[in-house]
Amino acid sequence: MYEQMNSQFLSLGKSFADAAVKAQSVALASFEKIADLQLKAVENHVNASSAFLSEASEVRDFDGAKAIWPKGIQLA
Question: Domain for residue 10, yes or no?
Answer without folding.
Answer: no
